[in-house]
Amino acid sequence: DWQGARTEFRTVLQYFPEDLYSRTRLAMVEGKLQEVAQTEQQRLQGMQQEAQQGRQKIANLRQSALNAYRVGAYQRAVSEWQEYLKFEPNSDEACFSIGAAYLEQKQLDNAILYFEKAVTLNPRNALAQLNLGILYDQHRHDYRRAEEHLRKANELGGVEKYSPERLQAMIQDLHSRAQIEVLQKSAFPVDHKHAFSSC
Fold first, then answer.
1. Largest CA distance in the chain
2. CB 110 within 8 Å of CB 94
3. What is the pLDDT of residues 111-133, one digit of tens each?
4. Which residue in 77, 82, 49 sits closest to 63, CA to CA?
5. How many Å from the N-terminal Cα to the C-terminal Cα in the chain?
6. Quick check: pTM over 0.85?
7. Which of 68, 126, 150, 172 would staple 156 via disulfide (CB 3.0–4.6 Å)?
8. Whose CA is closest to 25, among 33, 192, 183?
9. Mean pLDDT taken over the chain
10. DSSP assignments along 11-52, one per residue
């Protein structure tokens, strides 16, 4: 306990200022305390450097994933965003971007999975809501889920090229198609008549 030893030697020197042994021991203790302080400072600096390098690595990974998507290297973008998620597991941006890359590759079920993760992390992600609405409509023909997501995108004010008015028209179209589908599945009663023959 270097701190305790320093306190004790200082106390002794208050009463016996000429005590050479206590003065020598105090100097040694002060040196040890300085070494400990330097070691701790170096440790903290090392931790700060590691944290800074970690942040830089994550930023570089994100930028690389964005660039891969821009140039059409969708599988590389997916891999890099998945690596990014190991560091930032609550990133709706990463989940959305993976979904978008899968969408570009026509892997629609995977796209739905990641868009769903994006809206779970951030329900205000209007573009993910829109994509889910379109995918549930056109890929899964689940009009109820499609409408749910399109309504959320609409409530969020729409997105570029999809104004609230356009989204409302899409929702109305979903209703119409859902009604037609119900009618097609319904059996119509047919009159059974014979003109010239019998069964």
1. 138
2. no
3. 999 999 999 999 999 999 999 99
4. 77
5. 109
6. no
7. 126
8. 33
9. 91
10. HHHHH-TT-HHHHHHHHHHHHHHHHHHHHHHHHHHHHHHHHH
CA distance 70 to 73: 8
User: Structure tokens of 78?
Assistant: 């997916």
- Are 26 and 6 in contact by the 8 Å Cβ rule? The answer is yes
Residue with tokens 């929702």: 171
Is the torsion defined by CA of 134, 137, 142, 146 positive or negative? positive
Residue 40, both tokens? 């701790």
Q: For tokens 């306990």, name the residue.
A: 1
State the sign of the Cα–Cα–Cα–Cα dihedral 121, 125, 128, 131: positive
Rounded Cα distance, 126 and 197, in Å: 64
Question: CA nearest 155: which of 139, 137, 171?
Answer: 171
User: Residue 162 gets which letter from DSSP?
Assistant: B
Phi, psi of 119 (to 5 degrees): -75, -20
